[in-house]
């Protein structure tokens, strides 16, 4: 890890103060309980409160602590090259609607920023997808044809406003970027002003049905009674018939922040080459920065997180001469089979429980559209995106296919571990892991994920155990950090 500098923490988190909200400490009653304190949950809570409903927002850990606070924070409808494929697979009308849903989401966020005067570094920016090698020129030309079919404002170019050599680039005009945590802190303030209640460190455990009423039990002694519940966690904490487990694939990406002598204020970028690179500028009162990421891979595939960071670091140095790394972090996404999120009723005809998930790496803008959609569904109003994002939409058969998925020797292996390292081993034929902490104490864990039993794998960059099936993340000692798992990894005793 010699070349990694700065904090192992998202720049967005490192550059803001955490908001302070308490645990649920009394029983609450509300019209709606929203579970999950990322952009989906916070915006849904905000829109529902604006409509006059009483809302309680619960977050299992810290608000905006997950994917929302870990991305490059681009508000763009340019999702690398999605539209050509979407037209081929789903038709022009669906592709056009998907584009419009993202455009609308960005405008909704801009409108909230302006209405409440939220200082969140929101700025208009063109978005570029480029190929340096030229190997993706045909793909970019196909995407430009899709732009023309869908009336998207953009075209191919052989240069960009950056000092970056490209063989070909496709621009989409009039997109935006922002600081997601500053934005959501502003939204939370407005939500509370409207009477909304917010609790952190309060984990949803179950929803018990009593007629029209639901009782949300939590990992505190207290409950929330409500009529509707919105599950806006990365992976839904309820999964009827294992639908979401069987259709969503978890991916991990890696990001870094670098200090720069000059501003990167001319566009947001993503490469179409392999390995992919994604980057954008950021500013604070003292310095210019570049946020650079990429290296997306299936979660828990055993690849070295350090090598992913190192590859990004070399790109930043080679392309832009950046050497001062301020931080590095990973973020987790769930990808749906058709790359559209699942936003709507958790099951057909369920009028009490709603879900928002599967943003397929591009969730910030469309989360606002999704928040409006959930609000309209709860209010019984029509919404133009109900069918587009409906979790029960028809998926093709191929899309539905789930992405795949002795004591002395143990003691010797443990002795060779350095502090901060971990290793997999077999215990009575079952997968087990050992982790040596900074005090040189070795912890032994059953590597069976407590969600649905897949085997977790060590992530050496973040020092976490990651589950490849649905994206649960456990800390080095087995506590749940993210994902559908509610219980920690079990301890084992190999001796
Ligand atoms: Fe589902 Fe691990 S997250 S089995």
In terms of DSSP E residues, the strand content is: 25-35%
Question: Rounded to an integer, what's the Rg over CA atoms?
Answer: 22 Å
Distance between the termini: 32 Å
Bound ions, cofactors and other small molecules, one mention each: FE2/S2 (inorganic) cluster
Helix-and-strand structural type: alpha+beta
Count of individual beta strands:
26
List keywords for this structure.
6-stranded mixed beta sheet, alpha+beta, globular, 9-stranded mixed beta sheet, 12 helices, single chain, binds FE2/S2 (inorganic) cluster, 495 residues, 26% helix, 26 strands
Write the layout of secondary structure elements.
Elements: H1 11-14, E1 28-29, E2 32-35, H2 39-50, E3 55-58, E4 74-75, H3 83-90, H4 92-115, E5 123-131, H5 137-149, E6 156-157, E7 168-177, H6 180-193, E8 197-199, E9 204-210, E10 213-218, E11 223-226, E12 228-231, H7 243-247, E13 249-260, E14 268-271, E15 277-283, E16 288-298, H8 305-320, E17 325-335, E18 342-345, E19 353-357, H9 364-379, H10 386-389, H11 397-400, H12 407-416, E20 422-427, E21 430-436, E22 442-446, E23 457-459, E24 464-466, E25 473-475, E26 480-482
Parallel strand pairs: 1-11, 2-3, 2-12, 3-8, 5-14, 12-19
Antiparallel strand pairs: 4-7, 5-7, 6-7, 9-10, 10-11, 13-16, 13-17, 14-15, 15-16, 18-19, 20-21, 21-22, 23-24, 24-25, 25-26
The structure holds FE2/S2 (inorganic) cluster (FES).
The site of FE2/S2 (inorganic) cluster has 13 residues, from loops.
């Amino acid at each position: 890890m010699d070349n990694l500098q700065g904090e192992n923490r998202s720049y967005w988190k490192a550059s803001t103060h955490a908001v302070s909200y308490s645990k649920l400490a009394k029983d609450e009653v509300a019209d709606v309980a929203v579970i999950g304190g990322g952009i989906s949950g916070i915006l849904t809570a905000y829109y529902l409160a604006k409509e006059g409903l009483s809302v309680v927002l619960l977050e299992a850990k810290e608000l905006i602590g997950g994917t929302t606070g870990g991305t490059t924070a681009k508000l763009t409808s340019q999702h690398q090259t999605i539209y050509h494929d979407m037209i081929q697979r789903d038709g022009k009308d669906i592709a056009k609607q998907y584009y419009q849903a993202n455009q609308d989401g960005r405008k909704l966020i801009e409108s909230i920023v302006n209405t409440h005067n939220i200082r969140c570094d929101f700025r208009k920016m063109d978005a570029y997808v480029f190929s340096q090698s030229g190997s993706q020129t045909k793909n970019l030309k196909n995407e430009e044809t899709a732009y023309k079919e869908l009336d998207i404002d953009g075209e191919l170019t052989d240069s960009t406003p950056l000092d970056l050599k490209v063989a070909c680039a496709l621009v989409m005009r009039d997109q935006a970027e922002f600081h997601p945590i500053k934005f959501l802190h502003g939204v939370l303030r407005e939500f509370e002003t409207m009477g909304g209640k917010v609790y952190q460190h309060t984990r949803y455990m179950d929803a018990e049905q009593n007629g029209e009423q639901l009782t949300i039990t939590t990992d505190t002694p207290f409950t929330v009674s409500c009529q509707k519940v919105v599950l806006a966690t990365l992976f839904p904490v309820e999964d009827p018939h294992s639908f979401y487990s069987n259709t969503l694939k978890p991916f991990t990406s890696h990001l870094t922040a670098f200090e720069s002598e000059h501003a990167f204020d001319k566009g947001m970028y993503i490469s179409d080459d392999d390995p992919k690179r994604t980057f954008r500028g950021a500013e604070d009162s003292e310095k210019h920065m570049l946020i650079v990421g990429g290296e997306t891979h299936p979660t828990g595939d055993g690849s070295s997180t350090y090598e992913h960071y190192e590859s990004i670091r070399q790109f930043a140095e080679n392309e832009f001469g950046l050497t001062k790394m301020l931080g590095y972090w990973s973020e987790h996404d769930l990808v749906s089979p058709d790359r559209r999120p699942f936003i709507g009723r958790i099951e057909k005809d369920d009028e009490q429980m709603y879900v928002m998930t599967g943003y397929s790496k591009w969730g910030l803008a469309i989360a606002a559209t999704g928040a409006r959609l959930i609000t309209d569904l709860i209010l019984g109003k029509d919404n133009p995106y109900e069918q587009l994002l409906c979790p029960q939409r028809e998926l093709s058969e191929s899309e539905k296919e789930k992405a795949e998925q002795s004591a002395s020797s143990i003691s010797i292996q443990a002795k060779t571990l350095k502090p901060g390292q971990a290793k997999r081993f077999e215990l009575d034929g079952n997968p087990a892991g050992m982790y040596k902490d900074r005090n040189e104490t070795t912890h032994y864990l059953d590597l069976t994920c407590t969600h649905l039993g897949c085997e977790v794998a060590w992530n050496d960059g973040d020092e976490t155990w990651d589950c490849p099936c649905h994206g649960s993340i456990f800390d080095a000692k087995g506590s749940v950090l993210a994902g559908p798992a509610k219980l920690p990894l079990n301890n084992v005793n190999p001796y």
